[in-house]
Specification:
10 helices; mainly alpha; extended
């Protein structure tokens, strides 16, 4: 389940600190671009809501909102996705044990790659919109189910001595389950996006659509290893979900009776730990996805099976040596026996010839 994660970390080990630093730099740049480009969106939404509330013409407000929304989309197409592709290219180089440099992050901006990459930028943007819509739909359906179940259990919970505690526990568990189910969609789409980006940065001359098809083929490879690998990604992500939701909420509840200064310090410490673990998990999962694509889903033998194979091979070699020794000894014995028999037969023949010649001489002498 985690074999590809282990192999990816082993291959990245010589340059792990370097690619982690480059990935963090890339993340910071993308985060800064996201914050800056989305800054005009909130005032535009507020302006439109105020115009609607005061029954004023909303044409200008709608135009401002559309323009504000276009800015982050354009920045993602022309800067965001090429930077993501460069980061994936850098990690791929490290996993293939090639030396990486900071300029590799911007390799997709090179002439010959950039214009071809813009097609994939548009496709990725559509992909993200589909992911958000799917997430919204799944969230609505699951929340509806949670509300219906809570309504059915409300009578039992309200009659309990710990009604508030039971209600909070139910809400925390339900929220964690919803996020875990949503992560199925996010990580599945993330695998496809990383796969076709890898296909593009490895062979940019193949074109955008060929890279997308190769991205889907990276999942359906016929090796029967993808589902276990996918579960490994989800289980690691579950650690982040549990830390960011149930545990963080419980910390907030338990620090409610403490002094405000101590409570804020504890909450900040927990928040920093959650961010660090989130980055480590996401980084490890991305490494594993790239490693899985590079191996095309081929099985990785564990160290135990390798040891068993080696011991079995040693035993087989010892058995072959014993058998060869035995066969050699039998062959030598046979050859010795044959040579002895040949010598004895030659001796007997010589003796018979001598006796025959002696007898003939005796007969000749008697005739004389």
């Amino acid at each position: 389940m985690f074999n590809f994660h282990k192999l990816a970390l082993q291959n990245a080990k010589p340059q792990n600190a370097k690619i982690l630093m480059f990935t963090i730099v890339s993340f910071i740049i993308l985060f800064a671009l996201t914050v800056l480009t989305f800054m005009p969106v909130q005032p535009a939404i507020y302006k439109m809501l105020m115009a609607m509330a005061m029954q004023q013409p909303v044409g200008g407000a709608i135009f401002s909102l559309v323009l504000a929304l276009l800015i982050p989309l354009i920045v993602f197409i022309f800067i965001g996705y090429p930077l993501i592709a460069g980061t994936i290219y850098t990690i791929d180089k490290a996993l293939n044990k090639d030396k990486v440099n900071f300029k590799d992050l911007f390799s997709t901006f090179k002439k010959g790659k950039y214009l071809k990459g813009l097609k994939l930028s548009l496709f990725t943007l559509v992909f993200i919109i589909i992911a958000l819509l799917l997430n919204l739909l799944v969230s609505k359906v699951l929340n509806l189910g949670v509300v219906q179940l809570f309504s059915a259990l409300q009578g039992t919970i309200s009659s309990s001595d710990h009604a508030l505690g039971c209600s909070l526990t139910y809400q925390i568990i339900a929220a964690a389950i919803i996020l875990f189910i949503q992560s199925f969609i996010y990580w599945f789409l993330a695998i496809i996006a990383i796969n076709y980006t890898l296909a593009f940065v490895k062979e940019p001359n193949n074109g955008a659509w060929t890279s997308v098809k190769r991205g889907f083929k990276g999942i359906k490879n016929g090796k029967k290893t993808w589902f276990k690998f996918y579960l490994g990604l989800l289980l690691l992500n579950l650690i982040v979900i549990l830390l960011a939701n149930p545990i963080s909420q419980l910390v907030s509840i338990f620090t409610g009776s403490m002094s405000q200064t101590v409570a804020i310090v504890i909450i900040y410490i927990v928040s920093v730990i959650v961010i660090i673990i989130r980055l480590i998990v996401y980084y490890t999962n991305i490494l594993a996805i790239i490693q899985y694509y590079n191996r095309n889903g081929d099985k990785i033998e564990s160290s135990k099976s390798k040891k068993n194979k080696k011991s079995q091979q040693t035993k087989d070699n010892e058995l072959e040596n014993k058998q060869s020794k035995a066969s050699n000894s039998v062959t030598n014995t046979t050859e010795k026996t044959k040579s002895n028999i040949t010598e004895q037969s030659d001796n007997l023949q010589n003796q018979a010839k001598d006796k025959a010649s002696d007898l003939k001489n005796n007969l000749n002498n008697t005739d004389k």
